[in-house]
Design brief:
single chain; 246 residues; alpha/beta; eight-stranded parallel beta barrel; 8 strands
């Protein structure tokens, strides 16, 4: 996102740098490494960041909570951005800024001897902070989205359609009319304050819709889902021809 204003992303919940390498070589622009629902740890994030940087793939770490005890370790891997979940008010925004950014903007500690600064060789670049993203995934977050997104230290917003669908008692219906109405609100606010917007899709029809609505980074579902769908497709075809022959 530092150098790209739009592109294609995917959630990576499999904690493998090989998966990251496959994503990059499949011409994706960014990978969201999931520490909330995925299998990642600071160590696997580091491995995936190495793979991503060798391919010029942008990386975002979605942490599991706003006060994640390993956030400094994740930032020190050289991750490009941090995505904070369940953001609903300005107090939460102020808290994550303090935990994520170096002084004077925040209170994050600094060591030059980590991967991010080439183990001391680039200590002069200590003021390089990761981008900050917020996950708006509730009705309260939607209601306050204008105030949340306008904060100058917020760089991008992810529209959390799945959690929102659960809150409105339509679990999984992430493209129903009510969800789309909320998405349009978030997109409008993001465009007003020149912030980038990310949102998930599951098929070509949904991708077309997100693109037309102005989503900067459509997110092509999750690595596990794509793997499962492809394997099912292969096995179903095998059993089909096996039945026809026998």
């Amino acid at each position: 996102m530092k150098n790209i204003q739009h592109g294609l992303g995917i959630w990576q919940i499999i904690n493998s740098n090989i998966v990251t390498d496959i994503i990059a070589k499949s011409n994706f622009d960014l990978a969201l490494l999931d520490l909330e629902h995925g299998l990642h740890s600071p160590q696997s994030i580091q491995d995936c960041v190495f793979a991503a940087k060798s391919n010029s793939l942008f990386t975002i770490a979605r942490i599991p909570c706003k006060s994640f005890q390993y956030i400094v370790q994740v930032i020190d891997t050289g991750i490009d951005a941090i995505l904070f979940p369940h953001i609903e008010n300005n107090d939460q925004i102020n808290k994550i800024i303090k935990e994520t950014l170096l002084p004077p903007l925040g209170n994050k500690s600094f060591s030059p001897f980590v991967t991010k600064y080439h183990y001391g060789l680039k200590a002069k670049e200590k003021k390089e902070n990761p981008l900050i993203g917020i996950l708006i995934e509730s009705l309260a977050g939607i209601k306050n989205s204008d105030h949340l997104i306008r904060n100058p230290n917020i760089d991008f917003v992810y529209f959390g359609a799945y959690d929102l669908s659960v809150e409105i008692n339509k679990p999984g219906e992430i493209f129903n009319d009510e969800i789309l109405k909320h998405l349009e609100t978030v997109i409008k606010n993001a465009k007003t304050y020149k912030k980038l917007i990310l949102s998930i899709y599951r098929n070509k029809k949904e991708l077309d819709l997100l693109y037309k609505l102005g989503v900067d980074f459509p997110i092509a579902s999750v690595d596990t889902s794509h793997l499962m769908q492809k394997l099912l497709e292969e096995s179903e075809y095998y059993h089909k021809i096996k039945k026809e022959i026998h």
